[in-house]
Amino acid sequence: MTNQSLNFMTISELSNNIRTKKVSPTELIKHFLQTINRLNESNKSFLYIAENESLKEAAIIEKEIFSGNYKGPLHGIPIGLKDLYATNNMPTTSGSIIFKDHQPNENATSVQKLIDAGSIIIGKLNMHPFAFGAFGTNSDFGTAPNPWNTSYIPGGSSSGSGVAIASGMIPAATGSDTGGSIRIPSSICGIVGIKPTYGRISRYGLTPLSWSLDTAGPMARNVKDCAYLLEAMSGYDINDDSSSTRNVPQFANDLENKNTKLTIGIPKSQYFSNIHSEVASKVNGAIEVLKNIGFNIVEVDIPTPEEAGKIQLNIINPEAAAFHQDRLQNDSDRIAPDVRARLESGIFIPAVNYIQAQRLRRSFIDQMIDCMSNIDALVTPTEPICTPEIGQMTTKINNEEVAIQSLLTKFTSPFNLSGLPAISVPCGFDTNGMPIGLQIIGKHFDEATILQIAQAFESNTEWNKIQPSL
């Protein structure tokens, strides 16, 4: 085992090395800190590197493990946190210079759950300011460029999480997803990310963007690693009134239940028209892989993404404006310009529009439940377009110029609106060498099924094993 090989190991591989004492938690943390310090000046993934904190925790955990108190696969594993997760011993900026000195007095519930599982928090990760942008750019702290080609966007808003994992700086990280902010950077950076069912993971301690849509979730190198983190982060929390009381499955163990008789729906007319031809080619190829594995593939009709987008706009923007009202009134000059424009637009959406959008949302959810009653999961592209360059604002689809901002969330936001769980896994690369993602969507609180389908696809392809040249 070379030191370099540690960078791109999965959690399963790293934890096996820790458990068998081939590497100690302290050695592991020192190695990843060296990688972070070497790369971070140029790729800006980390807004805060928890060098002293993580080394101190590693020493404690090392004694626990070596004395026979091994907690499980996350024990001793370094994890990065999107910088809107509250941490009681390090700053939480939410990607904005306004909060550069903000120091919470307690951990977010999901962070504490990861710590209780033995994870070591190695730092806080870059993000689109206030999580309000799909590009993943950050004018306050600098943009973390895509490791596959630094001229291209990382995807947002969980940009630092995607870049750090793809770059081999950490094995896994947390993200948040209100309109696609876990799945977009996962797709664009060539990693795996899951947005669980709304309410599966507590939102307590996360800086809100949109209370009724925000979802916490994990990002990692492969499906099983996401399953480990999802299980650790999930569960009821009295501090979050949207938190579900449902039992948390053993997601990683459930991956062993290989059921290839599942029926997968493909919404051809709604999600496969007006997309880049290279995306269509790779995703259709992925569907053929699923068919060859043995899954039953059928075409289905579901509500259009355009319908979802119109409803969601009238929910996210007013809720975001409400949370940031004081900053808009008293500190607007320090809000990133693109974020400020979106927040200000929320002020001018009438209350009647917001209430009507919430009513239409209920109807949309009912339609989605009905559409999925005869299938086990849906499959779509994660993104309708190939990765854009930094600064590129429009692209052409079928010779029509289209705004990229709305396209990046077009295929992801319907599943925030409906609250359905969705995972993005790598399914190929375009001719510019940029990753393309496959999105798998499940029924409410059935993350286990989409994880099983995603792992079946992953096990029959090599896309998640390809690494960028750093």
Descriptive account of the structure:
This protein is α+β, with helices and mostly antiparallel strands and 470 residues long. It has a single domain (3-465), classed as Amidase signature (AS) enzymes (Alpha-Beta Complex). The chain has 18 helices and 13 strands. It has helices spanning 3-7, 11-19, 25-43, 51-66, 109-116, 159-166, 183-189, 223-233, 251-254, 268-271, 277-293, 305-323, 325-330, 337-347, 351-371, 404-408, 414-417, 447-459; strands spanning 46-49, 78-82, 120-125, 172-177, 192-195, 215-220, 263-266, 296-299, 377-381, 394-397, 400-403, 422-429, 435-442. Strands 4-6-5-12-13-9-7-8 form an 8-stranded mixed β-sheet. Strand 2 (78-82), helix 5 and strand 3 (120-125) form a beta-alpha-beta unit. Helix 3 packs antiparallel against helix 4 (51-66) and helix 6 packs parallel to helix 7. The longest helix is centred in the last third of the chain and has 21 residues, at 351-371. The radius of gyration is 21 Å and the shape is globular. The model has no long low-confidence stretch (mean pLDDT 97).
List keywords for this structure.
alpha+beta, 14% strand, 13 strands, 3-stranded mixed beta sheet, 18 helices, 8-stranded mixed beta sheet, Amidase signature (AS) enzymes, 470 residues
